[in-house]
Specification:
Helices cover 64% and strands 4% of the residues. The protein is mainly alpha-helical. This is Tc1-like transposase DDE domain-containing protein.
């Protein structure tokens, strides 16, 4: 799948069939993530770098080298804007992007597992043309109940992540507090030891005199 092919499919086949104000859940596959405007790279023309900085209101000097301009570009924090997101937004929809490396939060991954297993177990020796026809059949037979089970499973995973995050935050907070208490206690002891050493030195000097 390529970015242009996916964009064309969403534009011509999907966006107008969605219910109003739909939320489209999408992972970060490369063909989902074609940017409206990518940052220039070292292979870009110097004029392209300068124009990018101008568009983003970043000051630079006309005497700067490409390496210096590239450093400015890299240090300019801009959230990426994706073509697919903008296309769906223009039709009144919202794109919800999943965190990287979390297929367990994507119901379609479970659907694909079911479909692939079905083909592998029952139709492994069929031709490519037969598999294409079969895919249409299997998807059309994938019931609402099956979809709901996939959604429920993903919802459970999401709730588990929230629960773990909350517990992890509490552990980190208590760890920080304990460290601060420990530092305070250690600081007091060190100060007392330093005071004792100073007093000993003073007494020694007095005896010497």
């Amino acid at each position: 799948m390529s970015g242009p092919t996916f964009y064309k499919w969403v534009d011509e086949k999907l966006k107008d069939k969605l219910l109003p104000n739909s939320v489209v859940v999408m992972d970060n596959a490369s063909y989902h993530s074609v940017q409206v405007e990518k940052k220039p790279t070292i292979s870009s023309l110097k004029s392209e770098m300068q124009n990018w900085l101008l568009r983003h209101n970043v000051e630079f000097s006309g005497t700067m080298t490409k390496a210096q301009l590239l450093l400015l570009i890299k240090n300019t924090q801009k959230e990426p804007v994706y073509r697919i997101d903008e296309l769906l937004k223009a039709s009144g929809h919202t794109v919800l992007r999943l965190p990287p490396y979390h297929p367990d939060l994507n119901p379609i991954e479970l659907v694909w597992v079911d479909i692939k297993n079905n083909i592998a177990q029952n139709y492994i020796n069929s031709s490519l043309d037969e598999k294409i026809i079969l895919l249409d059949k299997l998807f059309s037979e994938f019931t609402a109940e099956k979809w709901q089970r996939c959604d429920d499973y993903v919802q459970k995973n999401e709730n588990d992540y929230w629960s773990r995050d909350s517990r992890f935050d509490n552990v980190i907070d208590s760890f920080i507090i304990n460290l601060q208490d420990s530092d305070s206690s250690s600081g007091g002891e060190v100060e007392d030891e330093d005071d004792d050493e100073i007093e000993d030195e003073v007494e020694t000097e007095s005896m010497s005199e």
